[in-house]
Amino acid sequence: MSAEFAQVTEPRKNSRFWKTMLQQKYLYMMSVPFVIWVFVFSYVPVWSWLMAFQKYRPGKSIFEQKWVGFDNFIELFQDERFYIVLRNTLGMSVMGLIAGFTVPILFAVLLNELRQQLFKRFVQTISYLPHFVSWVVVAGIVTKMLSIDGGIINELLLKLHIVDEPVQFMAKGSWFWSILTASDLWKETGWNAIIYLAAIAGIDPEHYEAAKVDGASRLRQIWHITIPGIRSTIIVLLILSIGHLIGIGFEKQFLLGNNLVKDYSEVLELYALNYGLGMGRFSYGTAISIFNSVISIALLFAANGLFKRITKESVI
Amino acid sequence: MKSKSNFNSTVSDRVFGATNSVIMLVVLVVTLYPFLNVLAISLNDSTDTVKGGIHIWPRVLTLDNYKAIFQFNGIMTGLKISIMRTVAGTLLGLISASMIAFTLSRVDFQGRKFISTFLALTMYFSGGLIPGYMLIRDLGMLNTFAVYILPGLVSAFNVFVVRSFIDGIPYALQESAKLDGANDFMIFARIILPLCKPVLATIALFLAVGQWNSWFDTYLYNGSNENLTTLQFELMKVLQSTTAGNNTDIHSLNMTQMMNRISPDSVKMAITIVVTVPILLVYPFLQNYFVKGMTLGAVKS
Description:
The complex is a heterodimer. Chain A has 16 helices and two strands. Chain A has helices at about 5-10, 10-25, 25-45, 70-80, 80-115, 115-130, 135-145, 150-160, 175-200, 205-215, 220-230, 230-245, 250-255, 260-265, 270-280, 280-310, and strands at about 55, 65. A two-stranded antiparallel sheet of chain A has the order 1-2. The longest helix of chain A is centred in the first third of the chain and has 34 residues, at about 80-115. Mean pLDDT of chain A is about 85; it is low at about 1-10. Chain B is built from 15 helices and no strands. Chain B has helices at about 10-40, 45-50, 65-70, 75-105, 110-120, 130-140, 145-150, 155-165, 170-180, 185-195, 195-215, 215-220, 230-240, 255-260, 265-300. In chain B, helix 11 runs antiparallel to helix 15 and helix 14 (about 255-260) crosses helix 15. The longest helix of chain B is centred in the C-terminal third of the chain and has 37 residues, at about 265-300. The interface between A and B is large, with 99 and 99 residues.
């Protein structure tokens, strides 16, 4: 260590550092172990990114592998499957972003307009319920509701004469994105509305009083008071959700998908799982993961830059 | 809020109010129906269920489906492992989040800036699936219980939620304790922790839900070890085994096949209820806490 050298050049500052450290030993004891923890489980895996530029052979350390440069990435960009998977990832992300972003706001605004307090509280409590259920359960429920024997959706469609025979929703690729987005809405709308409800509750009631005196209808009050009142909350959450655009995960796609709809359900991370772990192609799988991360960070900065320009607000 | 009376409500306002109530009623039905349907099927005689037409009320009431599933080792082991990981994961997660949060809330702490940046970065990137898997493998954690607890022990999000709560506690409390001779650890344990109950309840719920609901770590790391599989994973196997073209064939075990032979739907729904009910029993009691907790996190960040 260069501690001695440092002491010669900057004796005062350095000794003060160690002295404070000794004084704050309990603070260090309470945080340093966890920092090491985070280093091991969150930072060390990033080292394995080197693997994407190697041809991984099991049994050797990462420094003994053969370097292949960008070969894995070139192979990735030449794979037709990659483009299908990328399309699916972006398609489902964008659908999820639009729906998953607007519906909770709408729900919060409407819920706030309910005048019967008991009913309002009841709806709100029930709306959280699906959030607490795992995706495994949700996938099971969705499959059940959409099934051709006894599924309520098909039953309703038949009764209303919208279709003549039950639709096999889970077997048709063209339905997959919508089913996934709808399931996500069912699960998370109530939960995501919490923040907006809190923001609405923070709006000064006098604004509403004034609007009422001016004879504004309920819809006009929503448009001119409620929505502007939660505008900054909306923007912050929008930027955050754009940041997570491509990192939509793969849990839902894994659980709701099946071989029949694979061309629409496979997303980047699933592709990495299938190729990387399933076929033992660790380097290739890592290249996919890196691509995923890079795109996601680029989107975050792009979104933030865009909003900074428009609204002069920033979250990073 | 009371001031919004019906005093000067117009026709259009009343139409709006009525439409809104109808919309909310639909939301209620759409949210609740699937749960009630699952419950009804799980309580209905399995051969009768096949005839269809069960909605929210069982036609032939029976507990046989539940008796059947509890005879399988997989369910009992799963229940045990799920409870163990939820309790251990929640406790350790609370300890880690509150300790780090306390040190980060101390403006005089020298490591403060470094540690909070170090943590915040983890919210924006991760190594990815395969590097993560390789780390766990190299650490020798495949097929261990530890894999459920250790990798996710520290959550940056939870740390920041707790920290913003501690920031709201007057610093004078800590200073007076210091004058009385308390060290930093005692201040944390005797003064800060007791005051943090509301926020700790919130993140305890987050942690418990996360632990109880996760299945992918089992699939990835412990799928072949029957003594370590969780309830969610068992349900996943049963559910996936009959959907068209399943992608879990490597892991499908005897229990799954047997369950499907008895009665697919009723048994599936009974397991679904067993998996779901514990977590649904908790949340109404903690609702006030997490609404406040979420709001606080949102305002501060």
